[in-house]
Specification:
The structure holds two protein chains of two kinds.
Chain A lengths: L3 E4 L2 E4 L5 E7 L5 E7 L5 E7 L6 E2 L7 E4 L5 E5 L8 E9 L4 E4 L3 E5 L1
Parallel strand pairs in A: 2-11
Antiparallel strand pairs in A: 1-3, 3-8, 4-5, 4-9, 5-6, 7-8, 9-10, 9-11
Chain B lengths: L3 E4 L2 E5 L4 E7 L6 E6 L6 E6 L5 E4 L2 E5 L5 E6 L8 E8 L6 E3 L3 E6 L1
Parallel strand pairs in B: 2-11
Antiparallel strand pairs in B: 1-3, 3-8, 4-5, 4-9, 6-7, 7-8, 9-10, 9-11
The chains are: A mainly beta, B mainly beta.
Chain lengths: 112, 111
């Protein structure tokens, strides 16, 4: 019962470094999502992929890129990390007919 | 863009009390989802609502899809310490799979 799996769970980056957050789901969902959550705040949508082969911008896409590698995997890339990108990142996947989304456990990213 | 506003932002209640919170939108939603987030974890789906007026329960939790389709309500009866956490409402922009989340209601239960 893995559900949505994110890696890494914790990462510290220096300003200007790049990194990729990986996400995989084993529920055969079509849609996948990346959110960020800043301390004491709600979740803001960065990018989403309604289906394999498509990606769309969310509320806060600047500074990020995504790749829907296949139906299972959706990665988030920071090309040049900035301190403002320090946050907790959540991947989620969704069932089209059920209209619900399920979350991974989060990735804690600190940019110094 | 669209926002989901939740009220109250935070609340302290005594164990055993009932809790009510709500979520409002500036536009119509066709689906309302309620999540709970424990510290250090991802949000977990509690209840999903798909029709205006729908009332759905999950144990001590009851949620309602507002008649106007611009709001939703979550009630917790006889609260217990493990109800502590942040409760989020969420829904997709009309006709899309772009789910947005509310600002959250932080619940603290005093034993």
């Amino acid at each position: 019962n893995a559900g949505v799996t994110q890696t890494p769970k914790f990462q510290v980056l220096k300003t200007g470094q790049s990194m990729t957050l990986q996400c995989a789901q084993d529920m055969n969902h079509n849609s996948m999502y990346w959110y960020r959550q800043d301390p004491g705040m709600g979740l803001r949508l960065i990018y989403y992929s309604a289906s394999e082969g498509t990606t769309d911008k969310g509320e806060v896409p600047n500074g990020y890129n995504v790749s829907r590698l296949n139906k299972r995997e959706f990665s988030l890339r920071l090309e040049s990390a900035a301190p403002s990108q320090t946050s907790v990142y959540f991947c989620a996947s969704g069932e089209l007919r059920g209209n619900t989304i399920y979350f991974g456990e989060g990735s804690w990213l600190t940019v110094v | 863009g669209q926002q989901l506003n939740q009220s109250p932002q935070s609340m302290f209640i005594q164990e055993g009390e009932d809790v009510s919170m709500n979520c409002t939108s500036s536009s119509i939603f066709n689906t309302w989802l309620w999540y709970k987030q424990d510290p250090g974890e991802g949000p977990v789906l509690l209840i999903a609502l798909y029709k205006a007026g729908e009332l759905t329960s999950n144990g001590r939790l009851t949620a309602q899809f507002g008649i106007t389709r611009k709001d939703s309500f979550l009630n917790i009866s006889a609260s217990i310490p493990s109800d502590v956490g942040i409760y989020f409402c969420a829904g997709p922009y009309s006709g899309t799979y772009k789910y947005i989340f509310g600002t959250g209601t932080r619940l603290k239960v005093l034993a």
